[in-house]
Amino acid sequence: MSDARALLESGDIAGLIRHLRFNAEAMELGEVARLMEGAAALSGFDDMREAAAAMAARQEPQQLYDFGYACVERGIAFLAVPALRRALEMMPDEPVLLMELVSALERENRHAEAVAALEPRVDALDPWPARYLLAYNALFSGDLDRAAHEAARLPAPDGDWVPARDRLARMVARARAAGPLGSRDLRGWHFALGGGVLATISPYGFDDGMTGRYAYTSDSFALCRRTLDRLRLVLDAAGRRPASVGLLPDRSSRILGLAAARLFGLPAEPFAPERPGALVVAYDLNETDADGLRERTEGQVLFEHASCWTDPPVVSADVTGFLHQVAVAPWGSQLRVTPGGEPETVPPDERPEAELAAEIVAADPLPDDGDGGAPPDPDERLAGFVRAVAGHWLTGPRDMVRSPGPVPSSRFA
């Protein structure tokens, strides 16, 4: 408690939020509210300050709900969960409280807890959204059979819920095609939830919490070449022959797109959403203009080399090179250690895009053996996976997937 108060008094709001993430559920709600009232006042968040002050004064369902709602809206849904649970204990049959609790749990990727909250009450509630959310969260928690069972019990929706029904049906069908899916099958679940093929698995820390994702990585020309070679393998296994490479506007995507065009022997053109048969190349979809990419054009394939799994892009790529929390481009500013053991920052590589693309093409694409703990991932395994799921690939819109799903990875602040 004193640590949290000291962080607030020093003005370290980010530190306070990190502290509360790990300690709030064991603290008194009133103390959490007082801390957040002070933090919100310093941050200029009047809605949060008012809701926190009200909950500090009185912990009745309305005040608990208002605080929880404010936390969800401000991106700190973990703080909403204890308040909304308390409110639901007081009013167990109030659907508004239940739906807000489920929303908070979903945002925290606590899907099994969302299932547990919905399960005893779902029959008494409107199936859109209650049973849909039960099926959705069952799928994201890794329970495919439960998700399929609940999805089959859903009545026909009205117009507003048709896209959600269709999306759930696509996810269940993809999971069936990719299965059987284990709790550490990152490629399989990545395909099931987002519809994209994950080209490479991180060879570092697989058994130490990463399960195939990178935390922090300095990208390299060799890894760029490696993911482009795996992209070609995916296209060949699926029988896809792009007609051109679509260049997105940011520098990194243009560099990688020019390299892809050289490797695949294709013309490179500025991206046009309506152009059929294009291989659209993004270095990182969070760093470029993704307009026009959610709805797919005939024959178009979207490739993203480096995809952030903790801050996912607004569209899901059809092929993803690798998943990371933080990645530094090979031509970006780099931190290295001098021969004398001192850290130094290397400025960005400002060479022309075509020259950097040529370096990717010339790089050695041999896989990184990593720390030896990751399972082998030979080309034939990836090609076999693509052949197995090809009938469910490149279907439907490219939806955003906010959750990492059933395969967890360690996060770093």
TrEMBL record:
InterPro entries: TPR-like_helical_dom_sf. It comes from the Bacteria. Residues 362-381 are annotated as: Disordered. This is Tetratricopeptide repeat protein.
